[in-house]
């Protein structure tokens, strides 16, 4: 018994369209229209399971991911024995049934682009990007999942996909039959005709299987994308790089990774509770050893500065040392304290009440009122001697540093830059759209997380505002470049507002309870 060729023809039959590597993209350009399938054409992977798994986890956690895993074999069997449409319906049901449509849209905007961007097929992208007229994409996946990435990161002008059925703001788990059902086969051709003017023919079509022939035959020329293993397009070759992304899963959730995630989840949750309790109960000077025993590695590089002397000792400075750290998770200041072997107070903007309660170090809330925050930082420096601050104002997961606020440079010349890195293998310990109170628990759910704290030299007087007459912005930019050079990161001018507008479609500001003085605080 012979296996069917990858393009879906019979044994000995030649494919009706040439391979995409035969396309001379230099002939294409201004005014050229291209239409491409998504899975298996624009993307290297023909299997959309990982993207459904991401949506499932973000909308329903490990329980929904487990349901998707249980139904995935049924989807595969139906796809082979019945139709491509039947298999897609099962995946759509498992990933979205009962989920808020807003949560699916949030995952599509903030989570999926990072994984889509790492899976773009080089040959398909070479042809797709060469067409500067109209770029059209057809996909059997729900349109709501694929459209944000295709429009925002690949420059697609229009996207047609499967439409989800909704009821009172929630996905029913079914596809909307009134809008074409699952977009496969002849339905793709019909959707393409609706996207074109009367008599118009796309210049190039890109597909990968027999069910794509119907829309490919409408094009002036068409090419098949073979499933040959290739390296994905480099991130810097795409029109827009993924700097910000959200979601809890670190790795692409293939069926095996998804299974391991579901099996580990209850174990990891229990382990995280033990690790958090250890951080709260064990004295800071012993925490390095305790964490190591629980599988949490803390790597210290550079020379940590000595603790401030007691009051009355002439050797103690009047304002203490300000540690200017890059911001990877809300645990940065805690692991800085672990590296020093002593608790160091930290100023925060968006720490949840639960995280404040569990924190083994003193945390001081800022209000983003510049004058009030400056007074608060000066007071804490005078009271504590040392203070940790993250001038970026929010976290970034990728190897980029956001713009550093210049406020810290105006308040003291005793600045020690600190380069912080963390490595997580299963779960991200940050979120922009979820509940931040779970951030430390997700970080500690990783089997063996690693925090690396690198102490750089204290800024010399001639490179500070007071001693060298430098502007605060110059000092902030210098510290940013210094830390970026240490970590081999890239400096950007992006800010917290850029992050939240990208991920959550807001400025990251929500009102919370008033403080004891009646002043309204804001959470960021």
UniProtKB/TrEMBL annotation:
Localisation per UniProt entry = Membrane
Where does the record place the Phospholipid/glycerol acyltransferase domain? 321-423
Which PANTHER family does the record associate with it? ANCIENT UBIQUITOUS PROTEIN, GLYCEROL-3-PHOSPHATE ACYLTRANSFERASE 5
The reply on keyword Cell membrane is no
Q: Which residues cross the membrane?
A: 49-71, 256-277
Q: Which CDD domains match?
A: LPLAT
Protein name (Swiss-Prot/TrEMBL): Phospholipid/glycerol acyltransferase domain-containing protein
Q: Under the cellular component aspect of Gene Ontology, which terms does the record hold? A: membrane
Biological process according to GO:
cutin biosynthetic process
Name the domain of life. Answer: Eukaryota
What Pfam families does UniProt report for this protein, alphabetically?
Acyltransferase, HAD_RAM2_N
* UniProt record similarity statement: Belongs to the GPAT/DAPAT family.
Keywords assigned:
Membrane, Transferase, Transmembrane, Transmembrane helix
Give this protein's Gene Ontology molecular function annotations: glycerol-3-phosphate 2-O-acyltransferase activity; phosphatase activity
Topological type in the membrane: Multi-pass membrane protein
Q: Do the record's keywords include Membrane? A: yes
This protein's species is: Sorghum bicolor
């Amino acid at each position: 018994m012979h296996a069917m060729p990858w393009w879906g023809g019979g044994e000995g039959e030649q494919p009706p369209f040439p391979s995409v590597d035969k396309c001379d993209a230099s002939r294409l350009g201004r005014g050229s229209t291209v239409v491409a399938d998504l899975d298996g054409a624009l993307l290297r992977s023909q299997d959309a399971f990982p993207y459904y798994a991401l949506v499932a986890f973000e909308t329903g956690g490990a329980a929904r991911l487990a349901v998707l895993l249980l139904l995935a074999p049924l989807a595969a069997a139906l796809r082979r024995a019945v139709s491509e449409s039947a298999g897609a319906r099962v995946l759509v049901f498992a990933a979205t049934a009962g989920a808020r449509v807003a949560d699916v849209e949030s995952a599509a905007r903030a989570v999926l682009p990072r994984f889509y961007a790492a899976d773009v097929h080089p040959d398909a992208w070479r042809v797709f990007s060469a067409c500067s007229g109209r770029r059209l994409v057809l996909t059997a996946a729900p349109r709501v999942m694929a459209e944000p990435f295709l429009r925002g990161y690949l420059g697609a002008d229009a996207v047609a996909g499967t439409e989800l059925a909704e009821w009172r703001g929630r996905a029913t788990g079914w596809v909307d039959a009134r809008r074409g059902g699952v977009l496969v086969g002849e339905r793709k051709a019909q959707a393409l005709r609706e996207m074109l003017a009367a008599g118009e023919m796309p210049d190039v079509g890109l597909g990968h299987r027999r069910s794509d022939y119907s829309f490919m035959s409408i094009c002036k020329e068409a090419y098949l994308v073979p499933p040959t293993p290739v390296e994905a397009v480099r991130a810097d070759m795409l029109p827009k790089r993924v700097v910000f992304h959200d979601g809890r899963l670190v790795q692409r959730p293939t069926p095996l990774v998804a299974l391991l995630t579901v099996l580990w989840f209850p174990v990891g949750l229990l382990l995280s509770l033990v690790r958090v309790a250890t951080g709260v109960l064990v004295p800071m000077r012993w925490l390095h050893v305790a964490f190591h025993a629980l599988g949490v590695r803390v790597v210290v590089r550079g020379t940590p500065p000595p603790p401030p002397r007691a009051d009355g000792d002439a050797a103690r400075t009047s304002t203490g040392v300000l540690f200017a750290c890059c911001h990877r998770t809300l645990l940065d200041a805690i692991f800085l304290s672990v590296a020093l072997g002593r608790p160091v107070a930290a100023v925060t903007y968006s720490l949840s009440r639960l995280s404040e309660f569990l924190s083994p170090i003193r945390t001081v809330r800022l209000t983003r009122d510049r004058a009030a925050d400056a007074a608060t930082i000066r007071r804490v420096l005078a009271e504590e001697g040392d203070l940790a601050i993250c001038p970026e104002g929010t976290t970034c997961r990728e190897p980029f540093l956001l713009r550093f606020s210049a406020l810290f440079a105006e308040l003291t010349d005793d600045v020690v830059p600190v380069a912080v890195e963390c490595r997580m293998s299963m779960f991200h310990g940050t979120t922009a759209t979820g509940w931040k109170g779970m951030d430390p628990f997700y970080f500690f759910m990783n089997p063996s997380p690693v925090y690396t704290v690198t102490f750089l030299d204290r800024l010399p007087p001639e490179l500070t505002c007071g001693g060298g007459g430098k502007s605060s912005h110059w000092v902030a930019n210098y510290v940013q470049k210094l830390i970026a050079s240490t970590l081999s990161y890239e400096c950007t001018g992006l800010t917290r507002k850029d992050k939240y507008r990208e991920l959550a479609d807001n400025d990251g500001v929500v009102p919370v309870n008033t403080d004891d003085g009646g002043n309204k605080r804001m959470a960021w």
